[in-house]
Specification:
It is a single chain. By secondary structure, the chain is of the alpha/beta class. Helices cover about 45% and strands about 20% of the residues. It is built from 9 helices and 12 strands. It has a 5-stranded parallel β-sheet with strand order 2-1-3-4-5, sandwiched between helices. Strands 8-7-6-12 form a 4-stranded antiparallel β-sheet, covered by helices on one side. A 3-stranded antiparallel β-sheet has the order 9-11-10. Helix 5 packs parallel to helix 9 and helix 7 crosses helix 9. The protein starts with a helix and ends with a strand. The relative contact order is 0.09. It holds the Pfam family Response_reg.
């Protein structure tokens, strides 16, 4: 009887150890696929709250409290997304976003206590991919984070990946836009998604509602000017003052029209 109990105990211990090993292996695999999020906020309570909420959803987080630490954190941590507070000491979130956009295309979500439209519009104009206003729920935070990450990782499932319009070339696989001379035109994740949407439906009017839902993954809102701001940013990068016809034309009370003819380009 004692021998039987001893065998049972040993078998039980082996099962427990095997389960722990399998769980550890699974967690390591999950960790390797985890998106990294950099939190920039001077309030320690906010940093802790955001870290806990994101950690619970399987994200890997790192947080910094001041603008001086951002560049080093980006270089060492390599974030897939940045949550950037608007009100920071010494340097505002808007100027930080503008500065970062000259160097990296990492998606940026502005976190702000200001609810006015002008603050949101300015943030989007200088390169932010989205915004979230304090106070916010966990559900809203996670939804916005995942939506922006999906935009950045989205791949259009088409055989042809390179297209030409005017004197520009867009590569949907590498998510790049170049001039005929080979010069790279830097685009944010949201700007590229908007351009890809236009390229996929040239010379066809696309409504603000369609663009808001397709590109920004948000429900239509009569007062949401995010699409208009994004179009304005894209225009500044692909249109020239001397052009006789705008690449993106505004169609009154309907939406936007991508005017050039789009043709497949050599792979």
């Amino acid at each position: 009887m004692r021998r039987y109990l001893s065998i049972c105990v040993k078998l039980y211990i082996c099962v427990i150890l095997l389960a722990q090993i399998m769980s550890l292996s699974h967690n390591e695999r999950m960790q390797s696929d985890t998106n990294k999020i950099l939190i920039v906020d001077d309030d320690p309570d906010i940093r802790e709250m955001l870290s806990e909420l994101l950690d619970e959803e399987g994200f890997q987080t790192q947080s910094v409290s001041d603008p001086v630490s951002i560049d080093a954190a980006i270089a060492q941590f390599g974030p897939d997304l940045i949550l950037l507070d608007l009100m920071l000491p010494n340097e505002s979130g808007l100027t930080i976003c503008q500065r970062l956009r000259t160097r990296i295309a990492t998606p940026i979500i502005m976190v702000t206590a200001k609810a006015s439209e002008i603050d949101r519009v300015v943030g989007l104009e200088i390169g932010a991919d989205d915004y979230i206003t304090k106070p916010f729920s966990k559900r809203e935070l996670i939804a916005r984070v995942r939506a922006v990450l999906r935009r950045g990782a989205h791949e259009l499932k088409v055989q042809q990946s390179m297209f030409a319009f005017r004197d520009l070339f867009i590569d949907l696989d590498s998510r790049t836009l170049k001039t005929v001379a080979g010069e790279l035109i830097p685009l944010t994740s949201a700007e590229f998604d908007l351009l890809a949407c236009f390229v996929g439906a040239p010379q066809k009017v696309l409504s603000r509602h369609h663009l808001l839902r397709t590109v920004l993954r948000r429900k239509s809102d009569l007062f949401d000017r995010s699409v208009d701001t994004l179009v304005s940013r894209l225009r500044k990068k692909i249109e020239r003052p001397e052009d006789d016809e705008k690449i993106i034309a505004t169609i009154r009370q309907q939406g936007y029209l991508f005017t050039p003819k789009v043709e497949p380009a050599a792979q």
